[in-house]
Amino acid sequence: MQLHERLTSGSSELDLHIFQSESRTPIGRTLVLVHGLPRALGMGRTAAGMLPELAEHVAHESGWLVATGTMSGVGNSTGTFSATQWLADLHTIVDRLEQYDHPIALAAFGLGGNVALRLAALDERIRGIATFATSAHLDVLCGEPAKFRGQLNRAGVVQSGQQLLEADELWADVASLDPLGSIATIPPRRLLIGHGTDDLDVPVSDARDLYAAAEEHAELRIIFGAGHTLRADPRMVATLLGWLDRH
């Protein structure tokens, strides 16, 4: 089974892909894959491009129903990035998938992991969460507010005719995701924290800080030699599949 839908989230229209293996017996659980925030020139249109393929593979290998949605300002979704908007987007996606009446887990990359952690802190429907290459310290990740805003403008996560929040407001909005505070509220629900040793964007020490904030009630997986873009790393896929199998 493969579905492609459009969801309304505020003034944004989101792309949603849903996969269920037709060769395995469904096991009655749902996973949502969440992409990260593109900051390189022109990457806003392509940042989520590999996730439908990954979702289909994970669905086939695990028996889970697997969905991936594209957030505001990315890919074919309309709208403009803000942390508040992405949090609303993910909430909208979970609302749609709740119709399957399965327990729901999230697996998220980069800043998508921060959004996923925040939603899980606020929403008990999220029964497990896996983060990959996710920052524990968003003030460090974002850096100087004006520079951060400029990067996002160049990445193109802005709908034509709209503008990003002003620099200080945008920076504060992202910082409000509060990864250390959010992850502390999630146990005893299932947690997986994955990170590459050679991540140049988010140091591997951030994974250990998230693990400590969860009072070590998590699985910590450090992937030797891996960089920031873990969604294409087969070791990440194996780690995620193992976590789903143990759920």
Topology:
Elements: E1 2-9, E2 12-19, E3 30-34, H1 51-62, E4 65-70, H2 83-97, E5 104-109, H3 111-122, E6 126-132, H4 138-142, H5 145-155, H6 167-175, H7 179-184, E7 190-196, H8 205-213, E8 219-223, H9 234-246
Number of helices: 9
What radius of gyration results from the CA coordinates? 17 Å
Structural class: alpha/beta
Q: What is the first-to-last residue Cα distance?
A: 23 Å
Low-confidence stretches: none
If you had to describe this structure to a student in words, what would you say it looks like?
The protein is an alpha/beta fold and about 250 residues long. It is about 35% helix and about 20% strand. It is built from nine helices and eight strands. An eight-stranded mixed beta sheet has the order 1-2-4-3-5-6-7-8, with helices on both faces. The radius of gyration is 17 Å and the shape is globular. The model has no long low-confidence stretch (mean pLDDT about 95).
Looking at this protein, list some descriptive labels.
247 residues; alpha/beta; Rossmann fold; eight-stranded mixed beta sheet; 9 helices; 21% strand
In short:
With 247 residues, the protein is of the alpha/beta class.
